[in-house]
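Subject: Sanity check before I submit

Could someone independently write out the structure tokens for this chain? I want to compare against mine line by line before I put it in a report. The sequence has 397 residues.
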Amino acid sequence: MLPHKIMPRIEDVDPVRYRDYLRFLSGVLTRFKDYYERTEQEGQITDAESVAYFAERFLATIASLRLKYMYSPSYLRRPGVDLTYSGFPGMNDIFEILSDLATCKDRLAKLPSIEALKAMILESVMMAPSVEDEERHQARLINLLYKLSDRAYLEGLDINTQFFQFTPGKLSLVPASEYAETGRRAYVFSWACFDQESNEPVVYTMLFTQDDHETVFDTASADFEKFMDTVRNIAARAPENLLAIAVRLDESFRTLYPKTIKRVRIGPLVSPLLYQGARMIDEASLAGRILPVFKRAGSGLEDFVLLFDVEAVISVREEVSSLSRQYGYEKSRQVYLVNESMSQMKRRGVSTLKLYAIMPHWLRQHLTEGDFENLPELREAELLAYQINEKGLNHVC
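---
Independent answer below. Compare away.
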């Protein structure tokens, strides 16, 4: 969770450094995705509840960003990375992908085909320019490479496979045998967003019910678009208090009852690679406190620590809303449990909270009591360790 009064500081980076960063980030999220895939398979989690599904979509977006900025000219805006907190690509780069999708048809019409561009690049490579023409020749070759990567980027954009500012997931009807509430049927719906405040990807899953005398709710339902707009308007962001999201959704639906909302916040991410050559790092930040541990332990450039947390707010009973009666109908309002015995859970407005940290196995072995005292983010988390050249994560103490 983003500490109070800390806003993302997006640092512009050159294409070569950005390429290395995206390759590294792809490896980090692949480990995260593989962990969730295994966990979901073991727990028989449905596609509608899948966090791995959204991790896969974010990986596709990373691949698109690599193509977009690989050979981008210096006069275009540089991509950015949040080095204050999250370690993820700048939110504007994520948000622009949807804008590019809207204009890609017109832009593609102005670009030569990939085959034609490859032929022009080959011809340019085979040329032997004079010394006087060498600089102009190199500039032309870079421009052709930029057009090729730009075309591949635009052709690869897909609303159904990538991660955007708001990314709807899947809706599924829960089998009656798995949800026993008299007079109700249950559904699961998931979505994800890239939160502007924390500059992190966030995944939501909502279990909600419907009176069984109502028409079965699905993507073809007359009210589905209204349902989607409601979710998008209320929960295409991730304020600290999850209860506020749950209450607003509950108040917005007349015939649907949000029972449980789960949220997975992915980040922050810290690695020596992100801060290579950095002139100043806030000593109080997570990076400022954990990078000295990496250095002391002799870490590699691409070793990393990725934090993520799983929180949920759960309805414990229903009450008929007096406000709905004033408008001539009765709506059962959810009463959500918030664990007020723990200050962090009370502040977040959640019933349950689990914190996790992914790190190299050798780094865990180097952590001292003093390190845990200085890094409460790790002290309170379940640690998941990886071996450098092996797949998978192991739970460690």
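---
OP: Matches mine. For the report I'm noting this point. The longest strand covers residues 305-320.
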